[in-house]
Amino acid sequence: MNVREFFLIFLVVTACAGAGCGDDGPGPAATACFDYSKFDGTTPEVSFAGEILPIFQRSCSFSSTCHGAEAGSAGFAYLGPPLSEQATQAQIDAIAAQNVGAASRAPSGMPRITAGDPANSFLLHKLDDTLSCGDLECAPDGCGAPMPFGGDLLPSAERDAIRRWIQQGAKVH
Questions:
Q1: Going by C-beta distance under 8 Å and a sequence separation of 6 or more, which residues neighbour residue 98?
Q2: Alpha-carbon span 86 to 54, nearest angstrom
Q3: d(CA 77, CA 100)
Q4: In whole angstroms, what is the distance from residue 19 CA to residue 6 CA?
Q5: What is the pLDDT of residue 142?
Q6: Against a cut of 0.85, is the pTM above it?
């Protein structure tokens, strides 16, 4: 290997370190920071009950030890009843009250969900595995694990639906 080849390999390895290059698995640097300048959150319109709640129920609230306990399990955000249960209006209201504008459990410096501003919604950093990106005060080590915990990231289409819902005001009605 000559000096030029070594230098090129060094540049590639250095550029990829911490940016998630070639690593699709979960972890602190598995995903590059999301580029909101290229994201249109205005269309299509997203329905909380029709699109977002089922994602939460299937991926986040399937047990009371995660995000399925209305009272909040160990300070975790409530994201709805299990998919096997029909959500009541009171449960839907509790989802909004515990998440939209509410402080995150981790000392992130941003709310769990900032209505109209997905880039400053801690939930999306957790879902996108971009915990070392943005203005997170807890980055890189104190933000907790990416979500869903211990599993693969949600498909990008589902994360984009959640992103659109937040951009469109995070309304539950």
A1: 72, 77, 78, 112
A2: 10
A3: 10
A4: 21
A5: 85
A6: no
